[in-house]
């Protein structure tokens, strides 16, 4: 016989906030697992922002989206996209209310190693590339790691050369070798910031010399010879290139239950993919739906392709002209609603003391809503209003989406920013919401497949 609940137990269930696994909401995990498999395929093809933009545009075209640069008009229900400098993409579905956007913004760039402009040199019987790290990394995590080369260069004749080398099983990899423990006593006495310095991130790229006694740097020349044969470039071309090195590993399932994904670049390509899938699948949104995939977030959102640029204003101006509305770009944006789709830090059980656990987020417990980001006393933060949070709550309840709140660590320890403050600067209501990550900014970040799926469901509901 089932035990009868007491009146106080019933009251507790009615009044208390429940925190439980999002997996409990699924009788079968097939939909979640299938979505995770498709996401992993996307990740493996999208390691840099240029690669990611290509993947996004490819899926948009396949789904019937038209390049708005070549259109003269648009109407309700039309699917449009704009690709700016191969680093920023916006996808739109024209809604019943054309005067405003429901916008989900994510970023396509991730921490990595960029080559310096004169990178190639020879030392101690090897050829190496000098690198400059991009974004916030723990430098020691990038040594003894298989790396692949991505990017573009231009020859003196103006020919564009694209790189993706080291990803295939039969292609060579590249590595930054660490110091052996037998000789590392002084290194290991340094703090973690110092024992691998920025100028120590030199990538080994060759070892075989050319056979000519008159050549000074024989191994360097052999590398140049291979690069010229394979890609048609010279050493001078490095000065006119964008070349990145990223982990050569593909994404993997993690755990006996395969419930998690381990991969590079999930910050923030997890939100790129989930919001991309969401906008592809909607048909008749109330307001015009916009997925905004931006660049440079990891280094402050500056530059012509970052969220601080005028891209959104220019997009709104182009959109207003196409749909034929007499509304200024600034008014369109001011009347819009936005989600800053970015990841947050989950409690890592090995380092849980950096979190205030009552307000921390846990892997597998669903979408994370962050009312504010920033650091210390909410400096450099967007802080969502109670009115907007109430609107978001209605979506979560109606769609039965698993959610939790979060913040980026303890007040005086943690902190971080997203594009939320740049979206809100237009006057639009903005909230940070996305899945969580363990080991954020590392070469292998960890997410739960169910958190990824709940984020997708939320973005889709928000668009609708």
Q: Would you give an account of this structure?
A:
With 464 residues, the protein is an alpha/beta fold. The chain has two domains: 18-110 and 264-463, 3-Layer(aba) Sandwich (Aminopeptidase); 112-247, Aminopeptidase i, Domain 2 (Roll). The protein has eleven helices and 22 strands. The strands form five sheets. Strands 1-2-3-13-4-14-20-16-18 form a nine-stranded mixed beta sheet, with helices on both faces. Strands 8-7-10-5-6-9 form a six-stranded antiparallel beta sheet. Strands 11-12-22 form a three-stranded antiparallel beta sheet. Strand 5 and strand 6 form a beta hairpin. The longest helix has 16 residues, at 266-281. The protein is globular, with a radius of gyration of 24 Å. The two termini are 45 Å apart.
Compact description:
With 464 residues, this protein is of the alpha/beta class. The protein contains eleven helices and 22 strands. Strands 1-2-3-13-4-14-20-16-18 form a nine-stranded mixed sheet, sandwiched between helices. A six-stranded antiparallel sheet has the order 8-7-10-5-6-9.
């Amino acid at each position: 016989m089932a035990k009868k609940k007491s009146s106080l137990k019933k009251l507790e269930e009615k009044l208390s906030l429940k925190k439980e696994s999002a997996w409990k909401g699924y009788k079968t995990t097939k939909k979640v697992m299938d979505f995770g498999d498709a996401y992993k395929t996307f990740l493996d093809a999208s390691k840099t922002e240029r690669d990611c933009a290509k993947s996004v545009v490819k899926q948009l075209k396949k789904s019937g989206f038209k390049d708005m640069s070549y259109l003269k008009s648009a109407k309700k229900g039309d699917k449009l996209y704009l690709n700016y400098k191969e680093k920023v993409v916006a996808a739109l579905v024209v809604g019943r209310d054309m005067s405003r956007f429901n916008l989900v913004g994510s970023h396509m760039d991730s921490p990595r190693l960029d080559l310096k402009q004169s990178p190639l040199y020879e030392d101690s019987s090897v050829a190496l590339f000098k690198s400059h790290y991009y974004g916030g990394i723990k430098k020691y995590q990038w040594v003894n790691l298989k790396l692949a080369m991505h990017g573009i260069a231009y020859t003196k004749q103006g020919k564009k050369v694209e790189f993706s080398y080291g990803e295939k099983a039969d292609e060579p990899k590249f590595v930054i070798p660490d110091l052996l423990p037998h000789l590392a006593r002084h290194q290991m006495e340094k703090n973690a910031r110092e024992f691998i310095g920025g100028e120590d991130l030199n990538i080994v790229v060759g070892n075989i010399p050319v056979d000519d006694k008159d050549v000074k740097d024989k191994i360097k020349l052999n590398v140049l010879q291979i690069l010229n044969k394979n890609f048609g470039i010279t050493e001078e071309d490095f000065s006119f290139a964008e070349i990145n090195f990223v982990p050569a590993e593909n994404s993997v399932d993690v755990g006996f239950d395969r419930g998690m994904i381990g991969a590079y670049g999930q910050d923030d390509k997890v939100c790129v993919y989930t919001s991309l899938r969401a906008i592809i699948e909607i048909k008749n949104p109330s307001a015009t739906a916009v997925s905004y995939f931006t660049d440079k977030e990891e280094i402050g959102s500056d530059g012509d392709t970052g969220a601080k640029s005028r891209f959104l204003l220019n997009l709104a101006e182009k959109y207003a002209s196409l749909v034929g509305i007499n509304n200024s770009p600034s008014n369109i944006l001011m009347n819009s609603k936005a989600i800053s789709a970015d990841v947050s830090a989950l409690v890592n059980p090995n380092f849980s003391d950096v979190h205030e656990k009552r307000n921390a987020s846990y892997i597998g417990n669903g979408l994370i809503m962050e009312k504010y980001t920033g650091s210390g006393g909410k400096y450099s933060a967007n802080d969502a209003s109670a009115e907007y949070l109430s609107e978001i709550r209605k979506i979560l309840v109606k769609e039965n989406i698993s959610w939790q709140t979060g913040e980026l660590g303890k007040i005086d320890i943690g902190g971080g920013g997203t594009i939320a403050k740049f979206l809100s600067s237009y006057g639009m209501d903005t909230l940070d919401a996305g899945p969580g990550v363990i080991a954020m900014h590392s070469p292998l970040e960890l997410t739960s497949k169910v958190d990824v799926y709940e984020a997708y469901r939320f973005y889709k509901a928000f668009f609708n």
